[in-house]
Amino acid sequence: MAAATQGLVQTSPENNPHVPKRTTVKALVESPALTSIPSNYSYTRYPNESDASDPDEKIPTIDFSLLTSRDPLQRSKVIQDLNKACQDWGFFMLVNHGVPESLLKAVLDGCKEFFNLPMEEKMKFADKDIWKPIRFGTGVDVKVEKFFTWRDFLKVFVHPQFHFLNEPKGFSEVSGEYCKRTREVARELLLAISEALGLEENYIEKAMDLESGFQLFAANLYPRCPQPELVMGIPAHTDHGLLTFLIENEIGGLQIEHNGKWFRVNPLPNSFLVNTADHLQVLSNGKYKSIRHRAVVNNKDTRISIAVPHGPSLDTVVSPAPKLVESESHPAAYMPMKYKDYLNLQLDGKPCLDHNQLTFT
């Protein structure tokens, strides 16, 4: 950590009474006492963490309208493209998904209004209990990371029961509609992914009990940072669940690990950035990969992103699909685990996929 901040005048909670010991990043940035990055936000990048996008490579694009096409040839072609995207990248941009652009804008605007609420309003939802259905916080738990991250967040459980805030006005309604529409798109994608894996079309739907599937609404605020090279918005991680949908306010910051390098993502307008998550890797017996990704910040603009993971029901025991397990040539690579137990491990800072993976001698 010292190498990252060498030569800087530290404004840490320990030596400056004007900077609270634990505060939101938004309040920290707005503090007139802030002259440099507090030491407990300092993040050291290692050589293999440098940005190294290949300009000739592009994240695959999937046209959702072709998945619902009545033309069997068009549907077959896009399912092949989807299969390749899930294997080669673990990420794809979903276009023509049918969710109105006005709804995407409205839910992003609602997030901005929430983060602009007075501190006392937001702090009503500050809680360390990960199973609180509405939770506001900043950074990450120090059990998971040894430094604070440059973000504030709102996390809400929105399915199978819908929870939400009463303020700001209208935020609950637009978010409820947004979550409903994305859930419909995710279920259609998972029907196609079942086919792409050579399973029955509704295998994932039934095996993962998607009717009671766990859906989380996670809004992230990344304020502009005077020294962005010294902090991290969210460190490298993978997502729990089956698929995660991401939208943002046109301020880039997401990077994904691809072929051993960090690839900067520039989503198409009005698209969802979708990634295959941990439980799709387990269900596919490793055919699809849950790819590490991270969020970086900048010194010019505040970024807002909304990630919506779509998972199995909390009581579902997830294991490789039997059809994708061949006893000798391709045995099961993951042991069965209840989704809720997996979340408890992940949120306690454990490397879940490693913990869940079987080893063979």
Please tell me about this protein's structure.
The chain has one domain (59-356): B-lactam Antibiotic, Isopenicillin N Synthase, Chain (Jelly Rolls). It has helices spanning 2-5, 25-30, 64-67, 72-88, 101-115, 119-122, 171-196, 203-207, 278-283, 339-347, 352-356; strands spanning 61-63, 91-95, 134-138, 152-159, 215-222, 234-237, 243-248, 254-258, 261-264, 272-276, 293-295, 303-310, 317-318, 337-338. The strands form three sheets. It has an eight-stranded mixed β-sheet. A hairpin with a 2-residue loop joins strand 8 (254-258) and strand 9 (261-264). The chain is an alpha+beta fold. It is 28% helix and 19% strand. The model is unreliable at 1-20 (pLDDT under 50). The chain contains eleven helices and 14 strands. Belongs to the iron/ascorbate-dependent oxidoreductase family.
* SSE string: HHEHHEHHEEHHEEEEEEHEEEEHH
Going across the major beta sheet, what is the strand order? 1-2-10-7-12-5-4-3
Number of discrete helical segments: 11
Q: How would you describe the shape?
A: globular
InterPro entries: DIOX_N (IPR026992), IPNS-like_FE2OG_OXY (IPR044861), IPNS-like_sf (IPR027443), Oxoglu/Fe-dep_dioxygenase_dom (IPR005123), Plant_2OG-oxidoreductases (IPR050295)
Keywords: Iron, Metal-binding, Oxidoreductase
Protein name: Fe2OG dioxygenase domain-containing protein
GO molecular function, one term: oxidoreductase activity, acting on paired donors, with incorporation or reduction of molecular oxygen
